[in-house]
Design a protein that fits this description.
- It contains 12 helices and 18 strands.
- The chain is of the alpha/beta class and about 450 residues long.
- The longest helix has 24 residues, at about 360-380.
- The chain is globular.
- The structure holds iron/sulfur cluster.
- Iron/sulfur cluster binds near residues 170 and 206.
Length: about 450
């Protein structure tokens, strides 16, 4: 009874939380179509990759992944292979796939996830490839979402970005800022709460400009949205990312302090500590602006954990500029940082700059930066030793099943031995005393 076998899909997602949330929507539309998830690409009828073009060598890595899929198509000519995400928004990538990867049947983008079922049907019926990717368009609301976690959920509040930081490809591939209507967002969060979700992360490339694209008479802002989400019964924790420092208003800081469900954590990408480099990056703030924000945040929310993104080796960065970055890391004392060596993204302004930093120098700076970041992170974690923290239990640790993991409101991962009869702890809030602060994690014990 071959016809009764459920069709299977295999989905691989790369990149940021936004991409992973798009992955949940892709899974949602496929499962609504009757597909079930396959554990491996070999057993799937449809294989989809959701790509990211932000990271280093992303294009080459994509072609590597596509090459690995070729034998699958040879073994199973009926297999449909599709590629979506930021990469497919780049004309050069589309042209290469069309010419050199004839076994790729489908390209799609963030704006037509809702059409995936109909595109798959069309390919099955006609046997032809569909490689047109719509540019900017209306985001389809109300897509079914196959959530990865029953108690944590991502909720997109704003799409796109207007900022054009000179190193970043996002505005070119995700289009201009477009906020979702607050009533839609609140409806989604109420439904999530009713389904048992405890923690929501509000997502956008720049959540701080939420609502500013609405007509004047309907203007609202991210602080108002946080206040509204804070009233949703059943939701215990609210997180959000990403925040652009230039748009972090006093009103928002006040709201973060006042809304008791908003967690004491802010991811605030600094990117570089030198004013010269910040200007070249088109970030529109100075190191002093950033330090002033940190002061305001800490005076309103003393226990706030601050994390950041840092790039070393931006074109024109000299040793003195890099020292400014190290200095900022020490001055702010970040709880953690994502650190990157700059790599040019074709199509961005910075990629055209001629004074690129040699690779070896970039790596040398990166290692030196990581060392300082790690010292700061460990010091911040050690300061928590002896304190009692409320964690949201995420379940057994992936590495050691007998140890459980949970997150503090400051977003730090705490590992602890569960009390006897720990079944049912996952998704619950629990108090733990921090026994030891390490560089990346905390060790804790459950408080009776
Ligand atoms: S704010 Fe800058 S770095 Fe962030 S998505 Fe927009 S352009 Fe890229």
């Amino acid at each position: 009874m071959e016809n009764c076998r459920k069709q299977k899909y295999f989905l691989q997602v790369f990149g940021c939380q936004m991409n992973f949330h798009d992955g949940e929507k892709i899974a949602g539309v496929l499962e609504k179509m009757g597909y079930v998830r396959a554990d491996t690409p070999e057993e799937a009828d449809v294989v989809l990759l959701n790509t990211c073009c932000v990271r280093e060598n992303a294009e080459n890595r994509l072609y590597g992944h596509l090459g690995n899929l070729k034998p699958l198509k040879i073994n199973n000519p009926e297999l449909i292979i599709g590629v979506g995400g930021c990469m497919t928004q780049l004309p050069t990538v589309r042209a290469t796939i069309e010419a050199d990867y004839p076994y790729i049947d489908l390209l799609f983008g963030a704006f037509n996830i809702h059409q995936i079922p109909e595109l798959i049907m069309k390919i099955r019926e006609t046997g032809s490839r569909i490689l047109d990717v719509p540019g900017e368009g209306e985001m389809e609301e109300d897509l079914p979402v196959k959530r990865e976690s029953p108690f944590q959920a991502w909720v997109t509040v704003i799409y796109g970005c207007n900022n054009f930081c000179t190193y970043c490809i996002v505005p070119y591939v995700r289009g201009r800022e477009k906020s979702r209507r607050p009533e839609k967002i609140l409806m989604e969060i109420r439904e999530l709460a009713a389904a048992g979700v405890k923690e929501v992360t509000l997502l956008g490339q720049n959540v701080n400009s939420y609502g500013l694209d609405f007509p004047v008479e309907e203007r609202t802002d991210f602080a108002d949205l946080l206040a509204a989400v804070n009233t949703v019964d059943g939701i215990a924790r609210i997180r959000f990312q990403t925040s652009h420092p230039k748009d972090l208003s006093d009103k928002l800081i006040r709201q973060m302090a006042e809304a008791e469900k908003v967690c004491e954590h802010l991811h605030l990408p600094l990117q570089a500590g030198s004013d010269k480099i910040l200007k070249l990056m088109n970030r529109k703030y100075t190191r002093d602006d950033y330090l002033r924000l940190v002061d305001k945040l800490r005076s309103r929310i003393p226990e706030i954990a601050l994390t950041t993104d840092l790039i070393v080796g931006f074109p024109g960065e000299e040793e003195a500029d890099f020292q400014d970055t190290l200095d900022m890391v020490k001055k702010v004392g970040f709880d953690a940082a994502f650190t990157f060596a700059y790599s040019p993204r074709v199509g961005t302004q910075a990629a055209k700059l001629t004074n690129q930093v040699p690779e070896a120098e970039k790596m040398d700076r990166l290692y030196r930066l990581i060392e300082v970041v790690n010292q700061q992170a460990k010091a911040a974690n050690r300061r928590l030793e002896g304190t009692v923290q409320t964690i949201l239990v995420e379940g057994p640790s992936p590495k050691k099943k007998e140890i459980y993991a949970g997150r503090t409101r400051g977003n730090k991962l705490v590992l602890f031995a569960p009390p006897a009869g720990a079944a049912g702890l996952t998704g619950k809030e629990l108090n733990v005393r921090i026994r030891k602060g390490l560089t990346y994690t905390l060790q804790g014990e459950v408080v009776e």
